[in-house]
Amino acid sequence: MVPKNDLRPRKVPTQPRAIATVDALVEATARILVDDGLHGVSTNRIAEVAGVSVGSLYQYFPSKEALVMAVVERHANNVVTLLSDAFAQALQEPLPVAIDQLVSAIVDVHDQQPELQHAIVSQVMTLGVHHTAPMHARAVDVVHAFLITRQEDLLVDDCRSAAWMLVTTVMATLHGRHMGVAPDLGTTSLKVQLTAMIQRYLLPPSSA
Amino acid sequence: MVPKNDLRPRKVPTQPRAIATVDALVEATARILVDDGLHGVSTNRIAEVAGVSVGSLYQYFPSKEALVMAVVERHANNVVTLLSDAFAQALQEPLPVAIDQLVSAIVDVHDQQPELQHAIVSQVMTLGVHHTAPMHARAVDVVHAFLITRQEDLLVDDCRSAAWMLVTTVMATLHGRHMGVAPDLGTTSLKVQLTAMIQRYLLPPSSA
Amino acid sequence: MVPKNDLRPRKVPTQPRAIATVDALVEATARILVDDGLHGVSTNRIAEVAGVSVGSLYQYFPSKEALVMAVVERHANNVVTLLSDAFAQALQEPLPVAIDQLVSAIVDVHDQQPELQHAIVSQVMTLGVHHTAPMHARAVDVVHAFLITRQEDLLVDDCRSAAWMLVTTVMATLHGRHMGVAPDLGTTSLKVQLTAMIQRYLLPPSSA
Amino acid sequence: MVPKNDLRPRKVPTQPRAIATVDALVEATARILVDDGLHGVSTNRIAEVAGVSVGSLYQYFPSKEALVMAVVERHANNVVTLLSDAFAQALQEPLPVAIDQLVSAIVDVHDQQPELQHAIVSQVMTLGVHHTAPMHARAVDVVHAFLITRQEDLLVDDCRSAAWMLVTTVMATLHGRHMGVAPDLGTTSLKVQLTAMIQRYLLPPSSA
DNA sequence: AATGAATGAGACTTCATTCAT
DNA sequence: GATGAATGAAGTCTCATTCAT
C-alpha cells in the first residue's frame, strides 16, 4: 500500500498554552472521527473545531494522518491503563474465574467510549494496517505470556496460535457490536457468550 | 455517518460491448483497490485502467462509491456461490463433521483472492458500515437457520446470539490473517483452531 | 540545489480547443513573468489570466515551473528560428563582415521582445540553472563549429574557450541593456561596441 | 516589477550580544542561500539556523528580503575592500600591465567564495534588479574614471560605453564559470582570455 | 531583548463530475 | 454511445509576520 511518511508529532509542547492547543487538536480529531468518520477529517476542519488556526496544527503534526494516529494512541493508552488492574488481579485467580473477570473487564473498558472505539476500528485501517498492527501484536504477546504460565491447565498445546485466536476473536466481537448488525448482543449477553466460548476453547470439560 | 446517496448502477448494459465496458470498470476498480487501497481509487484512474473514458464510467455508475460497491457485491456473490455446495452437503452430515467441512470450505474460499478480500475488509468500511452490514446480517441468518435445525444437539440455547458469535469470529479470524499480524496462522493451523473453538462452543463434550 | 522533478508537459493537446487552452496558458505565463516577475507567477493567477480553470492547467502541466519552462522553450525556439537565416548567410561572407552581420542579427533578435527576454534571464535562473544551461551549451557548440571552419584566419588558438567567451559576453551585454543600468547603450551603440570587441578579439589587427 | 518597501535593517545593534545575533542571522541567510537557493530561505529557517528566535530576527530586519540584501551588501563590501589595493597599484602601472593585474585580481577575488557569489547572482535578481543595479553602476563609475585618466592611450572614444562593456563582460564571464556550462574555463585560462579580450578592445595593436 | 506560539492568507494540487462535440 | 476537455470546490500545507509573555 502506501508507506506513510512519518506520523510522529513534530514537536512536543512544553508551554501550557501549547499543551492546550495540542490537546484541543487531538480532541477535535476524535470528535470528528466519531461524528463523520475519517471522511470528515480534514486539517481545516480539525483546526476549526479545535478553535485553532491551521498553522498551529501543522506546528505540531505533520499531517492529518498523524493526528488520527495520536487519537489512536491516546485511546490505546487509556485502554491499557484501565486493563492493567484487571490483569494483575486475574493472575491470582483460578483459571475459570480469571477468564470470567478478564472478559468482563475488557468488555467494560470497550464500553467506555464505544463510538470512538468503533470509529477507530472501522476507519483507521484505511490508513494502512501497519500502524495498528503493533498494538494487536502487543496484545497477543500479553495473552501469550499469560497462557504459558498456565499451560498445564489448558486444553491447547500451541499457546501462540491460541493467543492469536483469542485476541482476534475478542476484538472482533467487541467491535462487531457497534456495527449496527443484528441482533446486537447486549453487554451481559456478550460477556456470557464470550466467556463460554473462551472457557470451552481453553479448558478441559471437567474444569469449566 | 454519511447517508450515501444511491449506490446502485445507473443502467444495466445489454449490448455485449457495454457489458464489456462495465466489466472492465469493475475489474479496474478491484485492481486499484488491491494495489493502492481506497486512497488510490479515483474515477479518472478507474477509467484509465479500464481503458475507457470517464464519460462512459458515469453512464453506468452514479459515483465512485457505486463502483466500489459493485466490486464488493461481485465478490460477495462469488463467495456465496462457492459456499452453497458446501452448505448443501454439510446438512447431510453429523454435526462435528458438518462443522469441520464448513470451516474448511469457508477458509478455502477466502483464500481464493486474499488481497481483494483484505482490501475490501480494510478499506471499504470507511464508506460507512451501512453498506456491508446487510451481507453480515445475511450470513447470520443462514447460520441461524442451520443452528435451529440442530438445536437439540447443541450446547447453546440462544441460537441467534450463537450465530452472531460464529459469523463474527470466523470473519475476524479470516481477515486477521492478512493483516500481517504475528504469528500469521497458516491455512491448516487456522482450520484446526477454528474447528476446535467452534466445536467446543457448540457441542457438548461427549460428542466432539 | 533542487533537483526539480519533471518539467515536461503532461500531455500534448491535439484537439483544437485543447491547443488553444495550452497556448493561452503559456501566453499568460509569459505575460505575468514580464509584468510581475517570477514572484507574481502562481498557478491560480496563470489560469485566471489565461481565462481557464486551474484544473485545465494541471491537465497539461505538472507544475508552475513546467509552464515557465514552456515559456523559455518557446522563446528559445523563436530565437533559433530567427537566427538560422543570419547564420546561413554569414557563412558565405568574409570574417569581418560575418561578425558584423551576426552581431547585428543577434542584437536585433533580442530586441524583439526585450521584456520577455529580460524576464527570462533575470528570473528563471532561480529555478536552477540546470534547465537553461543546455541552451547555453548549444549556443557554444554552434559558435565553436563556426570558429573551427575559419581557424586559420583567427587570432585565437583555443576555439572552445573563445566560443564560450563570445557566447557569454554577447549574452551578458544583451541582457545587461535591460537592467536599467546606466548608461543603457542604445541599439546602434551596442552593435558598434560588440562588433569592435569581437573583431579585435578574434582577428589579427591587419584584417579588422 | 515590485517596488520593494524598505530593505534597510531596522536598527543597528550596539551591544555585543546583539551584534552577534545580527551576524548570525546574516551568516545563516548566506548559508541557506548557498545550500538551497532563494527558495530555501524563509524567516523561520534563518532564525533556526542562526540559533535565534524569529522574534529577534524581526527586531533587526523588517523582512526576509532585507536579510538577503544584507548578505549581498556584506559580500559587495568584501569585494570592494579586497579590490581597492589592486586598483591603487594598477594606477601606477603602464596600461597593459594594469589590465593584466586588475583582471587577475578580480578573478581571484571572485574565486574566494564562488558558491556565495553564484548564489547571489543567480538567485537575487528575482527580488528585482533595482537593488543590485546600484552596485553595477558604482563599478561602471570606477572603471569609467580609470579609463578617462588614460584616454589618450586608448583605442576607444566613448569611455562610458567602454566602461559599461567591460564591467558587464567581466561580471558575466566570472559568473558564467559557476553555471556548470561547458567547457568551464579554469582560473588561468579565464584570466588569459579575459586579458586578451580587454587588451585588444582597449589598446591599439602596437601597445598590446 | 528575546522568545516562540499563534495566525491566516494564499500557494499548490487533485478529483468527482458535467457537457459539448 | 462514447469521448475527453473543462470545471472549480475543497483539501493540503507553508511561511511571513505579530504579539503576549
Structure report:
The structure is a homotetramer of 208-residue chains. Chain A is 68% helix and 0% strand. Chain A has 208 residues and is mainly α. Chain A folds into two domains: 4-64, Homeodomain-like (Arc Repressor Mutant, subunit A), CATH 1.10.10.60; 68-202, Tetracycline Repressor, domain 2 (Orthogonal Bundle), CATH 1.10.357.10. The longest helix of chain A has 27 residues, at 64-90. The mean pLDDT of chain A is 87. The A-B interface holds A 1-2, 36-40, 122-123, 125-126, 128-130, 133, 136-137, 140, 158, 160-162, 164-165, 168-169, 171-173, 176, 179-183, 185, 189, 193-194, 196-197, 200-201, 205 and B 1-2, 36-39, 121-123, 125-126, 128-130, 133, 136-137, 140, 158, 160-162, 164-165, 168-169, 171-173, 176, 179-183, 185, 189, 193-194, 196-197, 200-201, 205. The structure holds a DNA duplex (21 and 21 nucleotides).
Q: Which helices and strands, and how do they pair?
A:
Four copies of one chain form a homotetramer.
Chain A: H1 16-36, H2 43-50, H3 54-60, H4 64-90, H5 95-110, H6 114-124, H7 133-149, H8 159-176, H9 187-202
Helix pairs in contact in A: 1-2, 1-4, 1-6, 4-5, 4-6, 5-9, 7-8, 8-9
The structure holds a DNA duplex (21 and 21 nucleotides).
